Automatic annotation (TrEMBL):
Species this chain originates from: Acaryochloris marina (strain MBIC 11017)
Keywords assigned: Membrane, Plasmid, Transmembrane, Transmembrane helix
Transmembrane segments: 159-178
The protein, known as: STAS/SEC14 domain-containing protein
Length: 179
């Protein structure tokens, strides 16, 4: 399954579940062409779920054909990609693949796409890097659901109250000692 979100343009997010199908890849490339047609800088954050399974499936003849088509598409569009894509941030869900891809992604992305690329272990880090690559202010939403964000806020407020109480008690104790 493929999810594409360009609602926070110029920050574009995509999420692949496992190995992309030919239809999903066609959809991805069609969207990519739309982004390039805008003739504006953008950054791409690519999430890959089930990345290790996709890596294993990537050795099949079908996957090799998809990769061959993808490389041909990329070569055709490289001049526009290098002009408008400020960077590609990859977020695989596998620590093993992060360690494997990390050292080589910057060079491969630069050579293949003509733009910077990096691998990240979290979506937040990837979004931050992509935003910095753009050099423009972009609002980044947290990946936490609202209920979790509210829980964090309540937790922080409780700790502030506890700390204020401790500080008040220390202040009272110091006044008693000094008088």
């Amino acid at each position: 399954m493929l999810t594409i979100d360009d609602s926070r343009w110029p920050l574009v997010s995509t999420r692949f579940q496992g190995l992309g199908t030919p239809e999903e890849m066609a959809q991805f490339y069609a969207c990519f062409e739309e982004w390039l047609a805008k003739e504006e800088p953008f950054a791409l954050v690519l999430q890959r779920d089930n990345a290790e399974a996709a890596e294993k499936q990537g050795k099949s003849p079908e996957a090799k054909q998809l990769r061959k088509e993808g490389i041909a598409w990329t070569k055709k569009h490289k001049p526009l990609i290098s002009e408008y894509c400020a960077g590609v941030a990859m977020v695989p869900d596998s620590a093993k693949l992060i360690a494997l891809w990390g050292p080589m992604v910057a060079k491969v992305t630069q050579n293949l796409y003509g733009c910077p690329g990096r691998v990240f272990s979290s979506l937040g880090e990837a979004n931050l890097w992509a935003t910095k690559q753009l050099g423009v202010p972009v609002q980044i939403e947290t990946a936490a659901p609202p209920s979790l964000a509210i829980s964090r806020l309540i937790f922080q407020q409780r700790w502030i109250l506890v700390l204020l109480g401790i500080l008040a008690a220390i202040g009272v104790a110091l006044r008693l000692i000094l008088h």
